[in-house]
Every structure is written in C-alpha cells, then in structure tokens.
Write a structure and sequence with these properties.
heterodimer, A: mainly alpha, 9 helices, B: alpha/beta, globular
Chain lengths: 265, 249
C-alpha cells in the first residue's frame, strides 16, 4: 500500500515544488522590473557584464555558428540535391539560421557558459554570506546582482545571435561555392529572396527574450541555492538545465506569438 | 535602542527561538553567549532585518522592522553595521573597494573623499596601506578587521559582531577584543556581540545574556556571570560537558 501511495505523493510534491519555484521566479521578475524602472542603474556594473556576457562569449559563439552553418548547409545540399533543388541551399540556410537555429543555438551556448557562471557566482556569494552583507549595507541584491546582468544580456544576446547567423551563412557560402560548386549567384540570390527583414527581426526578438530567461533563471538558482559546495554545484547544474529547457519551451510560444504579430496577413 | 519582543523562529522541525525578549540600551556593550546551534547568530540576523521571524517584534529606535519590506529597511540598515563571522568580504573586490562599498552605494562623497575615509578606516583597525590587497591574500584576523572597517566607515549607530574571535589564535583574538572595546569607546556606538568565547565575553561586555533552549536564560554583568550558580550558566562558562548541558555524542 505504501508503495502505491508513494508515487502520487512524489508526483504531488514535485508539482508543488514546481509551482513554488514558478511563484518565486514571478516575484523575482516583478522585483527586477520595478528595479529597472525606478532604481538607479549601476552603469559600471552593466558595462562589466556586457564585457563578461557579450565580449567574452564571442569566440565560442563564432566557432559554434560557423560549424552549425557548415553542417547544416552540407545536409541541405545533399537532401535538396535528391530532388534537384541544391541551388536553393543558400535560401534554406539563411532562413533557418535567422529564424530558428541562430537564436536557439546562441541561447543554448550562453545558457551553458554564462548561466552556469552567474549561478555559481551568486550561489557562492550566498553561502559565504556576501549577499547578507550586501543587504546589511542597504543594497538590494536584485539592484546590484540581477539588474545589471539582465540589462547586459538584453544588449548582448541579439548581437551575439546576429554574429552567429552571419558567420554561419558565410561558412555555408564558402562550403557550397568552393566544395559543392553551387553557383555563388544562385546562393546569394536565393538567400536574399527567401530571407526577409521579418525573419531577421523575429530571430533578434527571440534572442532578446531568451537572454532574459537565461539570466533570470540563473540568478534565481543562485539566490535560492542551498548551503555548502553541494548547494553551489546543484544551483549551477540546475541553472544550465532549467535555462536550456526554458529556452526550448519558450521558443515554441514565442514563435507562434511572433508569427501572429509579424505576419503580413 | 534595540528591543526584541517575544521573538520566535522555526527552521523545519527545529524551533530555534522560542520567545526571546531582549533590550539593548544606547551605548551599551552587550554580549550574547550560548552553545553552538543555540540561535545566537539567528537572533543577530533578525535584529539586522536579514531574517523574518515567525512571530514577535524587533524594534530599532521604537520602529518595528518585522513588517517592513527589503526597501523599507534601508534607513534602519544604515543605522546598524554588522561584522560577519567570516567577514563576508566581496571576494571579487580589493580591500579598498570592500571598505568603500557602502560609501559608493550612498553616492554622497567624491572619490577623493572616499579614498580618505577608507584610509582612515584602515588606520582605525590598524591595517594602514593595505588597500590593494585582495581578500584571499588576508589572514582570518585581517579579514575580520577589514570587515569591521567596512562596517565602521558608514558611521553606524550600532555595531553587531557575529563570533568575532572564532577561528583566531588567542593573541589575534585578544587584539580583536581590544579593537571592539576601542571602537565602542571612541565612536560611542551600541555594540552587540555574539560569541561562545568566554575570555572575549568577559573582556568586552558591559552585560552578558545567555541564550539557552531558544530563550534568554540569564542576564547579568561579567562578574555576576562568573559568580552565577545556575547549573546551565555555570556549566557553560566553565566548559563542563557532563553537567546539565551534557553533550550527546
């Protein structure tokens, strides 16, 4: 009987825990929004975070973007080649990268690199009483720790996404025109024809929201971390996993929302 | 200046504070003693407004902190400085930036004035010229001194010390005690110290209170504590583990 009851009890506890965390994140979003609107901005911290999140992430984003572009264009060339549409690879790569793959892959890389670092830093500050020290010195942790990171990522993620998309398309162009011998004018013409301003805007708006989601989840996990080294480790892992899952799930809803808002019809 | 009324706090199944009543007068140097896990640091964090109680009141200059939000607590936090057990220095900032932190946040002084105030605070804690060092380059005693300098630089009306001599050798511990007495006398601040180091307690206290089983069990001067025949107080101050406070191994 105990075994039969333990399963629903476990499920109930998990659902309750999920709802509790959702509620706490909602309060964090509210506090962050109020701070962004009404509290003074710490521009030196924002610039430092732009450097940490944006400038320092460029290498990994450019490398990832280039190889995603290479692999995707190769796959598209082979698949489209079967139906005699190999010259359309430029249009497919450009459209897919700007709308979906660019923002999603950049966000996942940032969730791994920046989300983990943010959660680990804030969790360490929590377990070593540095956050209590901040509060004791009349500084709100959201103003000092969360807001500069959120504002920085709002700037950085769309730029990083644009860089990833550009390098991916450029890598695809080099591969297709030099190895697969696609006519460069076909590649360019299809790319321009099938990729509109709306696609670019859609990708950049997604990146903007993905960045906010990643940073808020990482800050939340750091601020609510448990005591000790184990707590810091768990907060870091949770930040990456929850941030990545949140990006993938929110992508579905943002895609539909943007389609409704930006569609011509 | 500080009043605590019927303060209760439970963590999970453990009832840490069971109705603490405490009053600290302006300029008084009060020491709270008690066994490890008796809730001394928890009480201190309640007074600093860092933890919300389950019930009871914490009053600073007559105003109850308990119902206030984080932002409403700001003016009270400027009145009360706290020196944390492990100093809680910001490890990404050097000594100067750590001490300057409350002044830079307040944004009332020019950079040159802040630098002067930091140098002065380092002189107070007998660490002149250490501005450029990182917290990781400091010993335990030095970290506590920097923590004290950071608390002092904002000119608080009260200072709270969480285990100021824990983990320090007797000589360094004595220098910290001297510093606490010096600061209390020089700046006329109300002082509230949590410790289980009786040498320290006898040296710095005007009055000692003992926290036991979540309540204030005893209150008196250092001489009264030494003369006290209450078994709980007697066993604690004399470090007797087989008496009323027998340790369960």
């Amino acid at each position: 009987m105990e075994i039969v009851l333990s399963f629903p009890r476990h499920v109930g506890r998990s659902v309750f825990e999920l709802l509790r965390q959702f509620g706490e994140i909602t309060f964090l979003i509210r506090e962050t929004l109020l701070s962004v609107l009404f509290q003074r901005k710490r521009w030196n911290l924002i610039l430092f975070q732009i450097y940490t999140i944006g400038v320092s992430s460029q290498g990994v984003i450019l490398l990832t973007g280039a190889f995603v572009g290479l692999v995707f264009s190769a796959q598209m060339f082979w698949q489209l080649g079967r139906v005699g549409l190999a010259t359309g690879v430029g249009g497919v790569v450009a459209n897919a990268m700007t709308r979906e793959m660019g923002p999603t892959i950049t966000a996942l890389m940032i969730a791994g690199r920046v989300g983990a670092a943010i959660a680990a830093e804030i969790a360490t500050m929590k377990v070593t009483e540095q956050i209590d020290a901040l509060r004791a010195m009349a500084t709100h942790p959201v103003d000092y720790l969360v807001v500069p990171r959120v504002l920085a990522v709002m700037v950085c993620l769309p730029i990083l996404t644009a860089q990833a998309v550009i390098i991916a398309i450029f890598a695809a162009y080099l591969l297709c025109t030099n190895i697969f011998m696609v006519d460069p004018s076909y590649f360019m013409n299809n790319m321009v024809h099938y990729t509109t301003e709306r696609d670019v805007l859609s990708g950049l708006i997604k990146a903007f929201f993905f960045g906010i989601i990643i940073v808020l989840v990482a800050c939340y996990k750091g601020l609510t971390s448990q005591e000790g080294a184990e707590g810091v480790g768990r907060a870091t892992t949770d930040a990456v996993v929850a941030g990545s899952v949140a990006v993938i799930i929110s992508n579905f809803f943002i895609t539909f929302l943007l389609e409704a808002l930006l569609s011509d019809g | 200046m500080i009043q605590v009324e019927k303060l209760e706090k439970t963590f999970g199944a453990q009832k840490t504070l069971r109705g603490v009543d405490l009053s600290v007068g302006t300029g008084e140097n009060l020491v709270i003693i008690g066994r490890s896990g008796s809730g001394k640091s928890v009480l201190l964090k309640h007074i600093a407004g860092l933890i919300k109680p389950d019930s009871g009141r914490v009053l600073i200059d007559g105003c109850d902190l308990v119902p206030l939000t984080e932002r409403q607590l700001v003016p009270f936090r400027k009145k009360v400085g706290i020196v944390f057990q492990n100093a809680a220095l910001f490890d990404s900032l050097n000594v100067e930036a750590n001490i300057a932190f409350p002044l830079r946040e307040e944004r009332l002084l020019k950079p040159a004035e802040i630098r002067d105030r930091v140098a002065q605070a380092l002189d107070w804690v007998e660490m002149p010229g250490q501005q450029r060092k990182m917290p990781s380059q400091l010993s335990g005693g030095m970290r506590k001194r920097v923590g004290l300098a950071r608390a002092l630089v904002a000119s608080p009306e009260a200072l709270m010390y969480d285990e100021p001599t824990a983990g320090l050798d007797p000589i360094v511990a004595d220098s910290i005690n001297e510093l606490i007495i010096h600061v209390c006398g020089k700046f006329k601040v109300t002082s509230l110290t949590v410790t289980h180091d009786m040498v320290s307690a006898y040296k710095i206290a005007d009055r000692i209170v003992m926290l036991h089983e979540g309540r204030i069990h005893f209150s008196g001067t250092p001489a009264e504590v030494q003369a006290c025949q209450d078994p709980v107080v007697h066993d604690f101050v004399n470090g007797i583990s087989r008496g009323r406070m027998a340790v369960e191994l």
